[in-house]
Design brief:
Blueprint: E1 3-7, E2 13-18, E3 27-30, E4 41-44, E5 68-82, E6 88-95, E7 99-102, E8 106-121
Antiparallel strand pairs: 1-2, 2-7, 3-4, 5-6, 5-7, 5-8
Amino acid sequence: MPIQMVFDGDETTLALLITNLSELPLSNNFFTQSSDSLQFAIFKHPEGHSIQRHWHPPFQRVLDSTSEVLIIQSGLVKTSIYDNNLKLVHAQTLASGDVAVLLSGGHGFEIIEDAVILEVKQGPYAGVRDKRVF
């Protein structure tokens, strides 16, 4: 399972691009650091496994950016990753089952083949403060 980590010049993680999830071994796989503003993991468990019941009690977090995860359900999507100065640093085409974890910097997408994309990001949505086109 190839993981392409994309960094800014100062080693800030901009994105993780994960392909070939079918090669995922049995385990808990956290791809983000515990200090990242968004946590992303993929769990692959055998039949009969259970996850202990639990809840996440509320506590205040302070975030200064919006992170998001895109899961390509079908199609081909050219994904462009930009650093915090909005300079292109990496481009890669993602296909069905691939994942982009976008932590910092900018990003853009070109649909190469009709695509269905599942997006998950932090809320609440902040309207015009939440996105800037460049």
